[in-house]
Amino acid sequence: MANVVGEGAAGRSTRTLRAEGALGALAADPQAPDRLRRILEQALVFAGAAFAGFYTLGEDGELLCLAESAGVPRTLCGVRDCYSAAGRGPVAEAHRGRAVWLGPKDLAAQSQSRRTPRREFHLAALPVRHDGGGCLLAVSERPGGFDADDRTCLALVADAVAFPAPPVTAESADLPPGGFTLAMDTGRLRVHDDVLDLFGLDPDDFDGRVETLLGLAVPEDLPSLMSVVEADHMTIGDRELEFRVLQPAGSPRWLRLRGRLEHGGEGHPARLVGTVADASSLRADVTDVARVQRLAAALSTAVTVRDVGKAVVAALRRPLRADRIALAELESDRLVVTVLDPPEPEAWPQVWRSEWRTEWPDAPVRTMPTLASALREGRPATWPAGSPLEPALAEVGPGGLAVLPLPAGNRMAGACLVGWDAPHEIGADERTLLTAAANLAGQALTRARAFDAEHELVGMLQRQLLPRRLPRLPGAVAVARYLPSTAGLELGGDWYDVIPLPDNHVALVIGDVQGHSAGAATLMGQMRTALRAYAVEGHPPDVVVSHANRLLVDLETDLFATCAYVDVDMEAGAAWCVRAGHLPPVLRHPDGRTEIAEAEGGPPLGVVRQCDFPMSPLRLQPGTLVALTTDGLVETPDSDIDAGMERFARQVAASDPADLGPVADALLGKALRSDDVALLLMRYDGMDTRPLRESWTVWRVPQAVGHARRFTRRTLRSWGVTEEIDAPLLAVSELVTNALVHTDGKVRLDLTLIGDRLRLAVADASPRSPVRPTSIGWEATGGRGILLVEAVSAAWGTLPVSGGKQVWAEFTVRR
């Protein structure tokens, strides 16, 4: 028997054996309150998952709700609190007993109408065997996903998960000492009497409303408290928080809240269950410590230089009762002011106002030698009221002044000036606070400066990959906007383009490459260039998108892209729309009625090599506004993309399309900027003068050139052009002759008249463009055709078209 066991263990990896041991130890204590979460954490340790969650049937039996989770926040992986048990998603399939393993392309194929996660995820959903059913959901960010050992460990975790005991609520049991329950939908609160005693309330005077207790908290602690008691910003899990409540006399009392949020179905939390205890004994000098802690917390999330300045002002202005605070960066020997409080120029000395620029001044360091000395010493310096200082400093703080050099390693990142108008004595506690604030702000300022510089570089690179300006359109006006994400430094993959095409057609293109990286930006540039090239060749919209899809597949990249392509006929007011996994256009009609176009869509580009991209017709009346955008404008982590599109359509309906620039700015002003955003707007006005057009298919017969000349003369006569037609007729002879002699296949002659401008175009099946000879001898028998066309026409040139080329020439005529 020992040999059998040894052989079985040898057949499993060391990691699997360690997972079995860890899960076995957890199974030995079934009553542990955090047992389920600790089991899920083993999926992070042994299977390399970034997120693991356990779903079980809710009370209504229709929803599978998240009972416990471990790892990164679920919103980063696109995971919801609840899923329909009768649906076809991975959670529902696993609940019905089938294990599901999905890679990035599988997830992309399942989300053609919804946003695909920006990062590449691998998802596993395994059934959990117990009386109520359930599902273990795991997400990995590793490029290869879950390997064989990972899958074995996930199966062990799924086997170890047991149905958790139902939470103890106020309705089913008495509250423990210090306990409370909060109904998240109504805000009704049940608390133990000793909790009310901590707040200084009599039980008979408590009305059961959570707002009553929040009103007794110190105002500075309210934001953190509200983040706990507001259901919209919460996910399933434990909560712990320390906060202060006001006392009738003396300093505020510190309390500690511990709780757990329990779901209630429909994807929304239902109740917060926990305890409140006195935490005053854990703090000696709570006031100063709390200020420094809050400043450190604020600076940890400050990503820009402006954010750092605002955090410092918020931390110092009220506690120090200061009248002025200035924060400035040190660039070489120059201080660049980033935040002034108050921001009005009248509140600052005259020498500062003389240096004012568009918003704030450069601090006049040359007039403040005392400030320069403080920066060299690198230590906070203070001066009481009446100190002999240069006017530029004395007028900042006539009642007292503090100068804080902001150190960052072995250099100075900047300086902070704090001034008082009335005489103010700076005590020891305030000096400690100023010193701590200076050290924290210096490090944060250095990080923020690097972020600002890199973010500006990212934005510059991104803008270089986008059109520098949009072309002027016949019968329409277009504007575009791009905003990079403020959530990170990576390059985005959103793009737009406006492509003028022959015969007064215009292609509107908007797209989004998966991910945020240099690779995504590079691929974006390739896709934009490819779509423009295919469009200019004269292919119809579905062929243009299909060619771009095959190109992306052939590039063998792991990324994919979405795209919306709209070909607009400016003369007829008609358009064809092709969607490749992208959002449909929004149309605002002249009467103000707005609709989301019902344009059939295909899969994202780069997912499936052979697929159809159907064309959907759009009808545009003069005054119609066409709006194309990427999902960064309409989708947020806590809202559905369909609701975002409806909101976007309402905003477009409320806009005034007379001036598209303010409309685009207003639409972008409502973006949360957690993702990069591209926006393309076009107002179709219709062409005032429609061109006259005629075409002639040139047959390869001996009289072909004569037929082409007669067709041209007859057409010009019908258009009222009877004079100065010798030059156009000569050009027709030369161009048609060249096409018949030097090419095979069809030859087509197109005539277009716009006002007094006549355009002749001869299209053939050869991709070779005619070459203008540099010189021709008297004995040469050919080569003069192009020289004649150049001599008699106002302009000439060649264009690539689908399967060949087009040679054109333009003339000025009188009707």
Automatic annotation (TrEMBL):
InterPro entries associated with the record: Bact_Sigma-Reg, GAF, GAF-like_dom_sf, HATPase_C_sf, HATPase_dom, PAC, PAS, PAS-assoc_C
EC number: 3.1.3.16
Keywords: ATP-binding, Hydrolase, Kinase, Magnesium, Manganese, Metal-binding, Nucleotide-binding, Phosphoprotein, Protein phosphatase, Transferase
Domain of life: Bacteria
GO molecular function: ATP binding; kinase activity; metal ion binding; protein serine/threonine phosphatase activity
Keyword Metal-binding in annotation: yes
PROSITE patterns: PAC
Domain PAC: 239-291
Pfam families: GAF_2 (PF13185), HATPase_c_2 (PF13581), PAS_3 (PF08447), SpoIIE (PF07228)
Keyword presence, Isomerase: no
Protein name: protein-serine/threonine phosphatase
Origin species: Streptomyces gancidicus BKS 13-15
